[in-house]
Each structure stands twice: as structure tokens, then as C-alpha cells.
Amino acid sequence: MDHAADAHRTDLMTITRFVLNEQSKYPESRGDFTILLSHIVLGCKFVCSSVNKAGLAKLIGLAGETNIQGEEQKKLDVLSNEVFIKALVSSGRTRILVSEEDEDAIFVEPSKRGRYCVVFDPLDGSSNIDCGVSIGTIFGIYMVKDDHEPTLDDVLQPGKQMVAAGYCMYGSSCTLVLSTGNGVNGFTLDPSLGEFILTHPDIKIPKKGKIYSVNEGNAKNWDGPTAKFVEKCKFPKDGSSSKSLRYIGSMVADVHRTLLYGGVFMYPTDKKSPNGKLRVLYEVFPMSFLIEKAGGQAFTGKQRALDLVPMKIHERSPVFLGSYDDIEEIKALYAAEGKKE
């Protein structure tokens, strides 16, 4: 890559231009999705700026409340949640919002209502703020017919019904990864322009990876197939090299690495969390959507992750996502376990 030539590139593909180009492929589109996305992007820029200033602005202390998941809320969590709710409602394109921070879904008032339902985790990995580890925002978008009063059923849909999903990672740079259904693209915030520029066009996850990512501290509580797969990663019997373990503990950062370098990210079911730990609507679904659109797979231990039908908005599920061949191995181990039973 010629960085010198790159530095003088004047034909920059911004995220707005990219989405407008996509929109032009559908003559029937009204531009609603583009408007909605521009509000999400604005929210991401605001949170990115706040995260960068967190230490200085004394935002780091706990807000003193506990969120619906029983996690202590950081002030930045509260701020990010408010920013995204206001940005999404003011777009005039949303009907229902589901946030990790709020116990109940938010139904947008009729005068500001649109065709989209947005599910999101405004600041995933917020317990890592104090130590400077990458954190992020995760979102998924459903479209619903506007011929009825909105109900919870509009968002309690399988992940395969999503029209778009993405995440924004606040790390060494601010990176937004997005799929609107055809392929996955990564954009990096250029602070001098205040614009997200296309830096990772058409991301494809490697078919097989050399990395596995899991919290090994839970190993004593794992089920058989998970334990066998991790054992195989460390002590392969076919003479191949062992896989490397990489686990950050911030889902956005771990999935981002998996998407770019390949391998497996897993948060399996265990004795402590029999239903898994990650939330279906705004963690498992958006990440599974992105991984599948990049050529990988996402599996719950029982079925394709995007086929799950959630019954509650904060429902949890185990998940294994990553390179196609690696997930095939995990599926085979679960199938073998099923036959034994």
C-alpha cells in the first residue's frame, strides 16, 4: 500500500456518499434509510469524542445506578444512551428503539414515527473505559410495515430479517463497520475532516483462522463440545500448528479482530450462564449478521444464530462466530454430542 500516494488522495469515499451510492441502486427508495444512518453516524462521532475525553471530563466515575443487566452504569453509558435515543428519535425514521440500558422498549411518538426499528448497545464493554481498552456501539436495524400500531413483535424477529447492522469501535482509531445486506465495509473517522472514510472495502473473513477467542476463566463450567474444541485448538492431533488465544473481553474489539484476521469468537453456554451471556437482539444478531455477510458463520450450539426467534427484548444466547471452516468444526462436535444423547 502506497501511504504517500494515499495521503494525497482527493477522491474520498465518505460513508454518506457510500450509502447514497447504495441507495441509487434502488429507484423505489425514499432516502429514509440514508437519513436514519446519518443520525446513527452522528451519534457515533459524539460518543467517540466523549470517550476520548472521558478521563479529562471526569466522566469515568460510576453514575451510581445499576442497569437492567445488573451492571454498574458508567456516566459514559448514560450519556451514550441518551445521545443515541435523541439522535434516532429526531431522525423521524424510527418506530421502536431497544437499548441495552433501558428495561423497556421505547415507542416513538406518532408525529416522529418512521418505518425502522433500531436495537442497540450504546456502549459495549464500558467496564473497560478506565483501562483504555477498545469499546464500541453495536446496532441492528429492522424495517416494519407502517400499516399498524407498533408492538413488541415488530422487534422480536429473527436476526435474518434485519436490513442492516454494524458497530463503531472506539480504539486507537474510530472505526465503523457496516453491512446493508450486500457485503461488509469498514470506515475510519478522519478527525481532521470529521468524516468516516472507506478504508476497508468489502471485508471478507478468512475461510479458516489461526486464532480462538474465549474467556478461559470459565473453562470448568463449559459443556463437552466447547471443551473439546478448545482442547483441539491447543493440542491439534493432525500435526497442524496450535491456534493462538486472543481475548480482550470487549465484544466489539474481539469480533473486529475475528472479522479481519479470521478464527473464532465464542461465548458458550456454561453452568453459571445456562442461556449464555450475550444479548440476542443487540449483540448476537448484529455481529452474526456482519460475520455471515463477510462469508463466515454464526452458531448458537443448536442452530444458526440468525434463525433464533427472541421471546424477550433482553434475551440471552450462547454464540460461536467466525471463519466458515472453524464453525463447521464446532457444529460437528455439537452434532456428535447430540447423537450420544
From TrEMBL:
UniProt keyword list: Carbohydrate metabolism, Cytoplasm, Hydrolase, Magnesium, Metal-binding
Keyword Transferase attached: no
Span of domain Fructose-1-6-bisphosphatase class I N-terminal: 13-201
Catalytic activity: beta-D-fructose 1,6-bisphosphate + H2O = beta-D-fructose 6-phosphate + phosphate
Major location (coarse): cytoplasm
EC number: 3.1.3.11
Cofactor: Mg(2+)
Domain annotation Fructose-1-6-bisphosphatase class 1 C-terminal: ranges: 205-334
Catalytic class of the enzyme: hydrolase
Keyword Cytoplasm (UniProt): yes
Subcellular location: Cytoplasm
Domain of life: Eukaryota
HAMAP family, A to Z: FBPase_class1 (MF_01855)
Family: Belongs to the FBPase class 1 family.
Protein name: Fructose-1,6-bisphosphatase, cytosolic
Gene source species: Hibiscus sabdariffa
